[in-house]
Amino acid sequence: MTMKLLFALGLAALAASSLILPNIPMHARGPRPGWSLGAHSCAAQTMEAFLGPFCEDSRAMWPTLKALAAARSPSTDIRVHLYPLPYNVGSWLPAQACDAAATLRQNSSSVFTQCVSLLYEGDNQKRIKTLALANGTTADVIRSLVELVAEPLGVSREVLTANLNQGLESGSPSYTKTKLSLKYGQSNGVFSTPAVLFNGIQVFGYDSTYGGLHAEGEFSQLSIEDWTHLLDLEPQVP
Questions:
Q1: Residues 6 or more apart whose Cβ sits within 8 Å of residue 54
Q2: Alpha helix (H) residue ranges in 105-234
Q3: Is a pLDDT exceeding 50 seen at residue 14?
Q4: Per-residue model confidence as pLDDT tens digits over 21-77
Q5: Per residue in 126-182, pLDDT tens?
Q6: How far apart are CA 196 and CA 214, in angstroms?
Q7: CA distance 94 to 222
Q8: What is the C-alpha to C-alpha distance for residues 78 and 44, in angstroms, rounded to an integer?
Q9: Angle at Cα 135 formed by Cα 134 and Cα 137, nearest 5°?
Q10: What is the DSSP letter of 54?
Q11: What is the pLDDT of residue 31?
Q12: For the whole model, what pTM was predicted?
């Protein structure tokens, strides 16, 4: 057997035995999805909250989350995802609007935080939700969102509108960011809002009213002290 043949056989055997690398889903690539409520990317502990743009419990939980982030700095990285549940028709647009505003302002977490605060302020959530669910078109919802957030966040109305007017299967960078958070939540089994992950593990709320039917339980009623107690629990081996 010639050396050339041996070499060829060796290459063929190597090719047959080489491993095929796995496919990596889009939400596992690049930086972690979501927006930090502080610059704590190196924090030892993470808490992630998935909030529904049209969810009243998410709105009620928002002030506590902001205060908790300030109190836990810099030991805990509290990250937020606006999470458009499929049965809240139209909730994708406010989620993307906040992602878009933050992206247009140099990926600013503070701008994202301000945007969520605007959405949950006064009757803004109810007004936009009613428009989306009852008597408005997609164009109406986009126009209402742009009027609400563009000027206070220092974003061009024209550019923000262009970000929200996108195709069904592709679009602006903010479309991708919103989609990443959605896929990331789905891969972690998030199916309700508000939902919470501690270090990547979903924590379900205690539901004293409906016997566990509501996975979020009473998250919206927990205080800073309650969350601090839960975050400070030590691992114990039985």
A1: 88, 90, 91, 94, 125, 128, 129, 132, 133
A2: 109-120, 124-130, 138-153, 157-164, 173-187, 224-231
A3: no
A4: 888 887 788 788 999 997 666 888 999 999 999 999 999 999 999 999 999 988 999
A5: 999 999 998 899 999 999 999 999 999 999 999 999 999 875 566 788 888 999 999
A6: 13
A7: 25
A8: 11
A9: 110
A10: T
A11: 82
A12: 0.87
Sign of CA dihedral 187, 37, 179, 133: positive
- Of 82, 40, 88, 105, residue with least CA distance to 177: 82
Distance between first and last Cα of the chain: 64
189 burial via Cβ count (<10 Å: 0-12, 13-18, 19+): exposed
Name the DSSP class of 167. Answer: -
Long-range pairs for 201-207 at CB < 8 Å and ≥24 separation?
A: 203/230
Worst-scoring range by mean pLDDT, 8-22, 151-165, 209-223?
8-22
Rg (CA), the chain: 22
**Nearby residues of 230 by Cβ (< 8 Å), 6 or more positions away:** 198, 203
Locate 113 and state its tokens: 């935080």
Place of tokens 């992950």: 197
Condensed to tens digits (0 to 9), the pLDDT of residues 109-130 reads 999 999 999 999 999 999 999 9
> Which tokens go with 228?
């601090």
Tell me the three state secondary structure of residue 42.
coil
